[in-house]
Design goal:
By secondary structure, the chain is of the alpha+beta class. Helices cover about 25% and strands about 30% of the residues. The chain has 7 helices and 17 strands. The strands form 4 sheets. Strands 2-3-4-5-8 form a 5-stranded antiparallel sheet, with no helix packed on it. A 5-stranded mixed sheet has the order 11-17-16-13-14, covered by helices on one side. Strands 1-9-6-7 form a 4-stranded antiparallel sheet, covered by helices on one side.
């Protein structure tokens, strides 16, 4: 995504929520799909007026009440994009610069889980999409197009030569005229119909079992939340058949929890909530890899995965 595109999105998100969601999706994909994407493990420290996030690679953020300040940015960070993610919260930095201030809600230490960084600078990405052509280059291109259009019009309107000579053949009585189409006529051969190749069922089926890199990153984490939960079944990676039964124990029996099933393309398949310690899904799932998330409100409590086998 070029700087021009980033500036345009930055203007739009101040006016439309839909544009904000689009910007966040494009920004996150820009980081997660970058070949040199990396995840940092920052040191989080409580200060007298907020929280300090410090990375060993040379980045320091000061967060207090409503502002996030980049107080230190090493050479490897200048000009890069950064994404700080947490449970139900994220902070997107378009271009890291020392002294940059960003609006930020007041948050506690438990919200911060990881720091994700895109290591391609805005300057490098700007070289991929150039919009600052010099004026002479633009006028030269326009002049070339005009000349080509005029040449085409002249060619179409060019006067054609009118034949005034009698071109009828002199046919005598002893001349045998044979129609030309009989001499050049070729036997017609029926061409075989092109058949549309059938999709490879094995490849399509294998695609349903491919792991999702983003969701895999959330499995096995320890989540800090007011409600503690212990998963009874299924265990992560189990192969399940028949009705799916999800069972757990939670520290507060009065708290509502939500179970969400997603496929390996991160698309929601089913969602339900309950105060009980168990939920069942009686629907039929296509064979493949699935993930299930249990959460309280917007707070993620645990993430697991399971497989539906080929019958």
């Amino acid at each position: 995504m070029s700087k021009y595109e980033r500036d345009w999105f930055d203007t739009q998100i101040r006016e439309e929520d839909s544009a904000r969601n689009l910007f966040e999706q494009v920004f996150d994909d820009d980081i997660l799909l970058d070949p040199s994407y990396r995840t940092e493990s920052p040191l989080i420290q409580k200060m007298s007026k907020g929280i300090q996030i410090r990375c060993a690679t040379g980045l320091t953020l000061q967060i207090d009440q409503s502002t996030a300040l980049i107080s230190e940015a090493g050479p490897t960070w200048i000009g890069q994009s950064a994404l700080i993610t947490s449970v139900g919260w994220s902070l997107r930095i378009l271009e890291v610069q020392t002294g940059l201030r960003l609006p930020c809600a007041s948050l506690s230490e438990q919200f911060f889980s990881e720091l994700k960084v895109c290591s391609v600078s805005l300057a490098d990405k700007e070289n991929l999409v150039r919009t600052d052509r010099p004026v002479w280059y633009i006028w030269s291109a326009a002049a070339t197009i005009v000349v080509m259009i005029m040449a085409g019009i002249w060619w179409l309107q060019k006067p054609t030569e009118v034949l005034t000579t009698d071109t009828k053949p002199d046919i005598s009585k002893d001349t045998l005229v044979v129609p030309q189409h009989h001499l050049t006529e070729q036997p017609q051969v029926a061409l075989p119909l092109q058949q549309t190749p059938k999709p490879n069922k094995e490849k399509l089926l294998a695609a349903h079992f491919e792991p999702n890199a983003v969701l895999e990153n959330f499995i096995g984490r320890t989540y800090r939340a007011e409600v503690r939960i212990e998963i009874i079944q299924p265990s992560s990676g189990d192969t399940l058949r028949g009705p799916l039964v999800f069972t757990w124990k939670k520290s507060d029996p009065n708290v509502n929890v939500t179970v969400n099933i997603l496929n390996n393309r991160n698309a929601s398949v089913w969602e339900a909530n309950t105060k009980e310690d168990q939920l069942s899904y009686n629907g039929v799932l296509t064979p493949g890899l699935y993930y299930w998330i249990i959460k309280s409100g917007d707070v993620r409590l645990d993430v697991r995965k399971f497989y539906i086998p080929v019958q």
